Amino acid sequence: MATKIRLQRGGRKGYAFYSIVIADARAPRDGKFTEKIGSYNPNTNPATVDLNFDRALYWVETGAQPTDTVRSILKDKGVYLMKHLRGGVKKGAFDEAAAQRKFDAWKDAKEKGAQVVREQEAKAKKDAMNAELAAEKKINEEIAKKVADKKAAEAAAKAEAEAAQATEENAAEAPAEEAPAEA
């Protein structure tokens, strides 16, 4: 029986998620499978992979052929590295403890790299947010300045209108006062 490690589609239209399964190569994509060893959700950022590492390693060592996508998932999780290290143990290049140390060192380095990337993304997001906030503050200050200038102009125009009206009233009262004196 030709065994494959492949993805089995689930979810709804436009929102697919996958089960990582062991199946006969002749079985339909979403049909009968031998064993489910994990799940893959590409809709999250970063994509979520839940994998039973020991079973995946067992099936890879027994000759199951993964599809391209599953192969990249397995490499990312370190299944192929562990297979390689176990091959070195069988050949006598090093012992099981050394293989485990090498794998743990690789996993730690990978996690540190991922942490650095997450920190850089968070910093970039924070810097973008601060830049956006500064631009918004600048725009708000310009708007406040325009409003203050407009209010000052309106106040000056109102004061000027009141002064002109007061002058007209004074001019109108002065001839009115002088008129009775002439009569």
TrEMBL record:
<dbReference type="InterPro" id="IPR000307">
    <property type="entry name" value="Ribosomal_bS16"/>
</dbReference>
<comment type="similarity">
    <text>Belongs to the bacterial ribosomal protein bS16 family.</text>
</comment>
<keyword id="KW-0689">Ribosomal protein</keyword>
<dbReference type="GO" id="GO:0015935">
    <property type="term" value="C:small ribosomal subunit"/>
</dbReference>
<feature type="compositionally biased region" description="Low complexity">
    <location>
        <begin position="162"/>
        <end position="174"/>
    </location>
</feature>
<dbReference type="GO" id="GO:0006412">
    <property type="term" value="P:translation"/>
</dbReference>
<keyword id="KW-0687">Ribonucleoprotein</keyword>
<dbReference type="GO" id="GO:0005737">
    <property type="term" value="C:cytoplasm"/>
</dbReference>
<protein>
    <recommendedName>
        <fullName>Small ribosomal subunit protein bS16</fullName>
    </recommendedName>
</protein>
<dbReference type="GO" id="GO:0003735">
    <property type="term" value="F:structural constituent of ribosome"/>
</dbReference>
<feature type="region of interest" description="Disordered">
    <location>
        <begin position="154"/>
        <end position="183"/>
    </location>
</feature>
<dbReference type="Pfam" id="PF00886">
    <property type="entry name" value="Ribosomal_S16"/>
</dbReference>
<dbReference type="InterPro" id="IPR023803">
    <property type="entry name" value="Ribosomal_bS16_dom_sf"/>
</dbReference>
